[in-house]
Design brief:
The chain folds into 2 domains: 183 residues, Rossmann fold (3-Layer(aba) Sandwich); 109 residues, Rossmann fold, CATH 3.40.50. Helix content is 42%, strand content 15%. It is built from 13 helices and 12 strands. The strands form 3 sheets. The protein has a 6-stranded parallel β-sheet, sandwiched between helices. Strands 7-6-8-9 form a 4-stranded parallel β-sheet, with helices on both faces. A two-stranded parallel sheet has the order 1-12. Helix 2 crosses helix 11 and helix 5 packs across helix 7.
Length: 316
């Protein structure tokens, strides 16, 4: 397949294999949500350096169209590759749901999403699975498809939570208003007697104290960050790009945002427990990665189905 003349072609590069092995991991999200993944990566892979980008100028992603999300993801990947990074983690469920399969075919470095690792873990945990996610993720039914690919007999309910990200980004995690909103979003899942709940957005684990206090104690809660971090470690080991204290004695974590660096830095410092100082950058949106085929884009924009449970005899 030929590439378009005006698209950014990230294939190749000057860095050798050894240089790539010690390059940082790129992690991005629309805001602070991806810090839950970064924190887990730092715990599980303490010798890896990380470049984090929060697209705070364009959050929330969950209410945007697939075209808008794909456009932003491509601009972020173009910027990330310029560092360079050895791998990119889409620490954003919305981006993973809409753009992952499309951009993977356009890059020479691994790009990992958060949905499949979390879906695999959810299937191991229960039979009646609830998913809290952004409107865009729910409309894509990425979690439902991923879970039913593994086990089509499971019941899956997905709930849109458009108010969660703005509440978290503004630091209103423990307010009475937040508790009332969380209760409202959980109500239908509790009525369906779910046994497993998936945080279908990397922001949502910050609400875990509120969520778990409102759920029956028997419900198991899945944080995608844990399963994603394991997937990253496995991929790095497979590629021979995992570093240790000898190959990378000094880690270097860098934080960038597209808007409001002071606000992001204050909240990130509070959430991570150490001082974060983010730099503001402007994404180059004039040069894009190559456009998807119409078939790929139509998959990303799959229309929702109405039933929450598979019909008798239905494969998925």
């Amino acid at each position: 397949m030929s590439r378009q003349a005006n698209c950014f072609n990230p294939v190749g590069g000057e860095a050798g294999n050894n240089d790539l092995a010690t390059a940082p991991i790129g992690v991005f999200d629309s805001g602070v949500g991806g810090l839950t993944v970064l924190r887990q990566l730092q715990q599980d892979l303490p010798h890896e350096s990380i470049v984090y980008f929060g697209d705070t100028a364009n959050l929330p992603y969950g209410t945007k169209t697939p075209d808008q999300i794909l456009y932003l993801v491509r601009a972020i990947l173009q910027w990330m590759i310029s560092h360079p990074v050895k791998m990119v983690v889409m620490a954003c469920n919305t981006s993973s749901a809409i753009a992952l399969e499309i951009v993977r075919s356009e890059l020479d470095i691994p790009v990992l999403g958060v949905i499949l690792p979390a879906a695999r873990l959810a299937v191991q945990q229960g039979k009646r699975i609830g998913v809290l996610a952004t409107p865009a993720t729910v409309r894509s039914h990425a979690y439902r498809r991923a879970i039913w690919e593994i086990d089509p007999k499971l019941a899956v309910w997905e709930v849109e939570c458009p108010e969660f990200v703005p509440l978290i980004e503004s630091g209103q995690i423990h307010s009475p208003k937040t508790r009332a909103i969380v209760r409202r979003y959980l109500q239908s899942l509790i009525e369906q007697q779910i046994d497993t709940l998936v945080y279908g957005c990397t922001h949502y684990p910050y609400l875990s104290p509120v969520v778990t206090s409102l759920l029956p104690s028997s419900v198991r809660v899945i944080d995608p960050a844990v399963s994603v971090s394991k997937a990253v470690a496995q991929e790095l080991a497979l590629l021979g790009h995992k570093v240790d204290m000898i190959t990378n004695p000094k880690t270097d974590h860098r934080f960038y945002v597209s808007d409001r660096p002071q606000q992001f830095s204050r909240l990130a410092t509070k959430l991570l427990g150490y001082r974060v100082s983010a730099n503001q950058i402007t994404l180059d949106k004039t040069t894009q990665l190559c456009s998807p085929s119409p078939q790929n884009l139509s998959l990303a924009m799959a229309k929702p189905v109405l039933n929450a449970e598979p019909k008798p005899g239905e494969n998925r």
